[in-house]
Amino acid sequence: MSRHDRHSAILDIIMDEGSVHIDDIIARLGVSAATARRDLDHLADQQLVTRTRGGAIANPVSTELPLRYRTSRMADEKTRIAKAAAAMVHPGDSIGLNGGTTTTEVAREIVLLPDLTDPDVPVTLVTNAVNIASEMTVRQCVRVVVTGGIARDRSFELTGPLAELILPSISVGTLFLGVEGLDERGAYAQHDGEAAVNAALVEAAQRVVVVCDSSKLGSTAFALICPTASIDVVITDDGAPSDQVEALRRAGVEVRLV
């Protein structure tokens, strides 16, 4: 297991259970006590956890993991979701993507579409995620439009008034929206600045497709992005709780399980 994978695994444990002891890390990850201590010290230096005697607890001032540490969580499910979302895209379409691990996978699947081969008929991609923009710019069959704004180091999303100014002048066919919470009332983000830009993306879209793994269903976050009335489709994995799926369907949302 690489150092990055160990850090992701340790953060997963702490986020799920609230704390971790060095003995747990040794047993679960098969590493030495010295390695476990170094990993915890590194995460504490980045203010992602708070060190305790013999372990660590969740950092009370950090409510979200940086994107680079979230990529390994439910990776198979996110890949299936991304493939299903990409299948909705055709050459010449205009689409929107906000930031996040699932939307990043959607972008990667879109450029693999077998019929996306003509640079004269590109997909126009509007995004506020600098990592997606950077990765897609080198693709000849994708025309990238970036919203502008101030980049957040945890999500790579551009936020602030610059991002919100351009979006009322843009129209996209389909927005693939990553969320940090989704229930029958609406979609949520942890950061209010991200939620504001995501809401502007929703307003600019003719169709809104939420892409999220089943762990997000039935949960909320700090800021509302949009109500369910603004959501057309939800693509999630087949591990989604049936009661949450039915609640979304009763709210008028099409739910696709993959």
Quick synopsis:
Helix content is 38%, strand content 24%. It is of the alpha/beta class.
Element string (H = helix, E = strand): HEHHEEHHEHEHEEEHEEEHEEEHE
What share of the residues does DSSP label as strand, in percent? 15-25%
Ends distance? 29 Å
The residue-averaged pLDDT reads: 90
Descriptive report:
β4 (about 95), α6 (about 100-110) and β5 (about 125) form a beta-alpha-beta unit. About 40% of the residues lie in helices and about 25% in strands. It starts with a helix and ends with a strand. The longest helix is centred in the first third of the chain and has 15 residues, at about 5-15. It is globular. The chain has a seven-stranded parallel sheet, sandwiched between helices. It has a three-stranded antiparallel sheet with strand order 1-3-2. With about 260 residues, it is α/β, with parallel strands linked by helices.
Layout: helices, strands, pairs:
Blueprint: H1 3-17, E1 19-21, H2 22-29, H3 33-45, E2 49-52, E3 55-58, H4 67-70, H5 75-86, E4 94-97, H6 101-110, E5 123-127, H7 130-137, E6 142-146, E7 150-151, E8 158-159, H8 161-166, E9 172-177, E10 181-183, E11 186-189, H9 192-204, E12 205-211, E13 223-227, E14 233-236, H10 242-250, E15 254-257
Parallel strand pairs: 4-5, 4-9, 5-6, 9-12, 12-14, 14-15
Antiparallel strand pairs: 1-3, 2-3, 7-8, 10-11, 11-13
Helix pairs in contact: 5-6, 6-7
